């Protein structure tokens, strides 16, 4: 269709005695296609081609190119594309230097529906003599670029990024060349860049890769400007800097790259720029820009940034700047300005960038402002005819964030739900339509890191979102969504303002630049009386397999003494254990000085097991005991042997507790072999980061206060350790302020000869054939169970295994490749050790397991073999449905329940192959209508469904099911 149309146009032109060859010899150097939605009610977009023409070899063609053709087609459809003719906007086209004109062509087009579309342009005759593409001669190759555009009504008045820096700069042999497109996205979407192979046109608007070689591979290997070999050619994925360091052979080179547009982690479009680099044997050195720092400013800040460039040859410099911050069509006022004193007359030039930011400039992504310097020959330069203008450029990144919310306060409020607090704050400075004040809360009061370049609430700070209110609000009642807050808990509150993406209000295009958020407000902490006790100590006093002892302590609640109250203490095996058993009931009247906040737990296997504790507090109400709340659980400190190392012993320890053991100095003790039972403090370990800590003992005693006892670590000799953790709640109301807790005693060897051997694991398989015969087998089950069993070998590789195994540890990971987590410790003394485990309460069978063995010293074996299990895919569809409104079989959906379906894509077609319905609903729920709501006629329809089942692999392999269904009315 396109070819026939061009033949007709050419015939018509020849009939009018046009200069046919010159009109076709376009010699396009570079170009790209951009788009922006211009209607709030229809899917109407303005499509724009910006092309750069070579007027040294084809000026007539550049001037005669009065229109171009866009080809538009759905990426996922094989239907015929739409071809549109777009007129040129300026006549004659402007000359931008370097023998190049910029030709701009624009047309409006309304897309028929949402979807993913390719917009492409192709025209005959590139330059001849391009060195790195083929096949030659390159004047017979056509020029082709495309843009992929995601049409989605929810994107609002979305527009692609625009490339503000023209792609025509000269490169010099043996000098570093840099190009940056200066891409700007008015919607504030994230941009990424990648190199692409230049293309020629293919079928239905698609592109076909040309023969292509990276420019740095043409000619001799070459070297960089600094002398390193070989020369390099690359593009920075984040900044978009295209760097060729450095050309070897002069001539024409064509390269291409993609500018990707991302929103909330989803790729929503991409632009291809195909550009030409002209390498000359210049008789001068390129000028140099001083680097610029990244800037983070609060909205309302006035930015004054000096920009400097120099030329070592004394050439006169011209300093210019481009960016969205200068263009009223892309950014709300006030616009930035850039002024240069003595422009074009000095070899050192200074520019002043000034921008008065405002609330309308708040944006998630930084603004990129490009500065470019170009040199010019002086009046007395020798061989001026050989002089070639060279450039350098640098980018200033500016992030504009929302002001900090001010004046946050909270007071107790009366509410039917129970405990509640009324929050108040000052009216927010930036009243932007659609912005929300997000309220965060956490238990306890702690500082968070404040940095103007870190907005929002830092991850891991413990705050949880409570609510969102409009930006014009100044108050909020926190009653925990109508259930009441915990009595006696000190709560901390902070506010953050989040700004909407542009286009969410299609009636106000340009009113906001692009999402973003504010710096978090100052904390307001309600330091209340501690009505609920908290656990402060879980310390191991005695290590034994049957006579182990752990002491548990907690705080006394702030309640009047005299009335009966009660503590109930529970214990579970394992640091993460949840199978709690009540071990103590302590009645109290909360009298001052009464020893009612301590319990000594005896008869434990502290040699093998850590333990987890929780505490309930009951108080008198209306003459009866009622539960107020339960304290957060706290585990004992668990000491483990690390990886074996010659002449050294590595130990690791951990504790899952509600207080903070990080940023403290923990204490390591080693038994003095000359005084059995006496432990000498050998090191203080400053711990950071996670709840698992480590120390390597090389025999040196690094703590001298209790005497220095150095030892020589000998392989196969046993050494005993214990660790004392140091932590705090960081809450002035909880005493003691510093909490000390001991681990169990761990005796280990400096080599791995005493470590037990890894078990051999098996996992009961599923009988999918049997289950497929009963498609409702998985429906309405409360959970699933995987049965594990293993054996312990007598020897491995001819080496005997330690027979004194006291426990097995079971580890589980939901997906292959993930780090498995400990889910159970299996030990049933004094009966024979169990070698099975049922992992219950699962939502899916899919997952991976391994098992380790633990010996009498607490040493843990290497992991067993890893065994993974997958689900049986269960997805059965009927072959008839009757959408007649009688509430019987009205929708087409899977039989029983679609077990373990992670996601799917369903498409239905009529007898002629036209798609009539599609959905991603895992239950399909097709009601016999098109996606537009139109009733379909009775008859036979065909379907294709691509199903992704839950699997042990994070990215599962899709299953495609094809069939037919009879629609009856």
Describe the protein's architecture and organization.
There is one protein chain. This protein is mostly beta strands. It folds into seven domains: 2-168 and 176-214 and 253-275, no CATH class; 288-401, Immunoglobulin-like (Sandwich); 403-528, Immunoglobulins (Immunoglobulin-like, Sandwich); 535-635, Immunoglobulin-like; 638-754, Immunoglobulin-like; 760-869, Immunoglobulins (Immunoglobulin-like), CATH 2.60.40; 880-967, Immunoglobulin-like (Sandwich), CATH 2.60.40. Helix content is 4%, strand content 44%. The protein has four helices and 66 strands. The strands form 18 sheets. Strands 3, 4, 7, 9, 11, 14, 20 and 21 form an eight-stranded mixed β-sheet that branches. Strands 39, 40, 42, 43 and 44 form a five-stranded antiparallel β-sheet that branches. Strands 47, 48, 50, 51 and 52 form a five-stranded antiparallel β-sheet that branches. The radius of gyration is 36 Å and the shape is globular. The model is unreliable at 1-24 and 504-513 (pLDDT under 50).
């Amino acid at each position: 269709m396109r070819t026939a149309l061009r033949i007709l146009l050419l015939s018509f032109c020849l009939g009018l005695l046009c200069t046919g060859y010159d009109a076709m010899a376009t010699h396009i150097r570079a170009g790209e296609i951009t788009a922006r939605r211009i209607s709030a009610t229809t899917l109407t977009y303005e499509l724009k081609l910006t092309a750069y023409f070579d007027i040294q070899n084809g000026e007539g063609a550049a001037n005669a190119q009065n229109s171009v053709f866009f080809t538009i087609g759905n990426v996922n459809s094989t239907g015929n594309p739409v071809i549109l003719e777009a007129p040129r906007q300026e006549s004659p086209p402007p000359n931008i230097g370097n023998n190049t004109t910029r030709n701009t062509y624009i047309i409006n087009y309304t897309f028929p529906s949402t979807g993913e579309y390719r917009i492409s342009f192709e025209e005959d005759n590139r330059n001849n003599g391009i060195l790195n593409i083929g096949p030659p001669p390159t004047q017979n190759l056509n020029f082709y670029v495309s843009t992929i555009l995601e049409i989605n009504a929810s994107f609002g008045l979305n527009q692609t990024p625009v490339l503000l820096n023209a792609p025509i700069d000269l490169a010099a042999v043996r000098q570093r060349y840099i190009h940056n497109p200066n891409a700007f996205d008015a919607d504030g979407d994230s941009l990424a860049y990648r190199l692409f192979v230049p293309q020629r046109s293919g079928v239905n608007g698609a592109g076909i890769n040309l023969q292509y070689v990276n420019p740095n591979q043409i000619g001799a290997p070459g070297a960089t400007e600094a002398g390193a070999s070989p020369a390099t050619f690359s593009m920075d994925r984040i900044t978009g800097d295209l760097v060729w360091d450095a050309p070897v052979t002069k001539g024409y080179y064509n390269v291409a790259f993609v500018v990707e547009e991302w929103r909330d982690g989803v790729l929503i479009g991409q632009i291809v720029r195909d550009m030409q680099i002209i390498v000359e044997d210049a008789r001068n050195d390129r000028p140099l820009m001083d680097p610029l720092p990244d800037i983070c400013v609060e909205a309302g800040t006035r930015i004054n940034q000096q920009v400097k460039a120099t030329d070592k040859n004394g050439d006169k410099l011209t300093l210019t700047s481009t960016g969205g911050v200068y263009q009223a069509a892309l950014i709300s006022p006030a616009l930035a300005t850039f002024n240069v004193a003595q422009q074009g007359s000095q070899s050192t030039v200074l520019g002043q960038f000034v921008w008065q930011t405002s609330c309308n400039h708040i944006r998630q992504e930084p603004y990129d402002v490009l500065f470019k310097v170009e040199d010019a020959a002086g009046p007395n330069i020798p061989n001026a005819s050989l002089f070639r203008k060279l450039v350098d450029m640098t980018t200033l990144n500016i992030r504009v964030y929302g002001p900090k919310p001010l004046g946050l306060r909270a007071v107790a409020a009366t509410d039917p739900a129970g405990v509640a607090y009324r929050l108040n704050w000052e009216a927010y400075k930036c009243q932007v339509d659609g912005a929300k004040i997000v309220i965060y809360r956490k238990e306890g009061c702690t500082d968070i890191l404040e940095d103007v370049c870190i907005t929002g609430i830092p991850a891991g700070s413990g705050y949880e979102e409570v609510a969102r209110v409009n930006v014009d609000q100044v108050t909020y009642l926190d009653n925990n969504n109508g259930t009441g807050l915990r009595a006696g808990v000190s709560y901390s509150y902070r506010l953050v303002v989040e700004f909407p993406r542009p286009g969410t209000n299609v009636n106000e295009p340009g009113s906001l630049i692009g999402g973003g958020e504010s710096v978090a407000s100052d904390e307001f902490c309600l330091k209340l009386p501690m009505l609920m006790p908290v656990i402060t100590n879980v310390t191991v006093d005695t290590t034994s397999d049957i006579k182990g002892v752990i002491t548990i302590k907690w705080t006394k609640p702030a309640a009047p003494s005299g009335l009966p109250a009660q503590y109930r203490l529970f214990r579970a095996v394992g640091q993460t254990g949840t199978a709690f058993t009540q071990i103590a009931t302590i009645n109290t009247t909360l009298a001052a000085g009464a020893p009612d906040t301590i319990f000594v737990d005896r008869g434990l296997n502290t040699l093998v097991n850590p333990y987890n504790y929780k505490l309930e507090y009951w108080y008198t109400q209306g003459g009866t005991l009622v539960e107020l709340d339960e304290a957060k659980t706290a585990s004992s400190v668990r000491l483990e042997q690390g990886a074996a190392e010659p002449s050294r012993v590595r130990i690791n320890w951990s504790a899952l507790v509600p207080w903070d053991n990080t940023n403290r100095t923990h204490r390591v003790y080693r038994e003095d072999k000359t005084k059995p039972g006496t432990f000498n403090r050998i090191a203080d370990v400053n711990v950071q980061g996670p709840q698992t800590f480590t120390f390597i003992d090389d025999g040196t005693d690094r703590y001298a206060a209790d005497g220095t006892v150095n030892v020589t670590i000998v392989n196969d000799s046993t050494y005993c350790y214990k660790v004392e953790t140091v932590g705090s709640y960081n809450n002035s109301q909880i005493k003691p302020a510093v909490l000390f807790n001991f681990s169990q005693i761990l005796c280990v060897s400096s080599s791995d000869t005493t470590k037990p051997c890894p078990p051999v694991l098996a996992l009961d398989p599923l009988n999918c054939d049997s289950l497929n015969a009963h498609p409702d087998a998985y429906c309405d089950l409360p959970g699933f169970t995987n049965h594990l069993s293993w054996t312990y070998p007598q020897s491995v590789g001819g080496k005997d295994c330690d027979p004194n195994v006291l426990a097995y540890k079971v580890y589980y990971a939901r997906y292959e490749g993930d780090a498995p987590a400990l889910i159970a410790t299996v030990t049933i003394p004094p009966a024979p050790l169990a070698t099975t485990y049922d992992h219950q309460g699962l939502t899916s069978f899919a997952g991976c397991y391994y098992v380790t063995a633990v010996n009498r010293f607490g040493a843990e074996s290497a992991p067993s073999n890893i065994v993974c299990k997958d689900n049986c895919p269960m997805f059965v569809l009927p072959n008839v449905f009757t959408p007649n409104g009688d509430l019987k079989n009205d929708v087409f959906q899977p039989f029983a329940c679609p077990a373990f379906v992670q996601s799917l894509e369903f498409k239905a077609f009529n007898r002629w192959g036209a798609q009539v319905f599609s959905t991603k609903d895992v239950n399909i729920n097709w009601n016999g209508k098109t996606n537009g709501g139109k009733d379909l006629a009775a008859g036979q329809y065909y379907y294709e469904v691509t199903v992704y089942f839950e699997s042990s692999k994070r990215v599962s392999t899709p299953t495609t099911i094809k069939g037919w269904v009879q629609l009856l009315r």
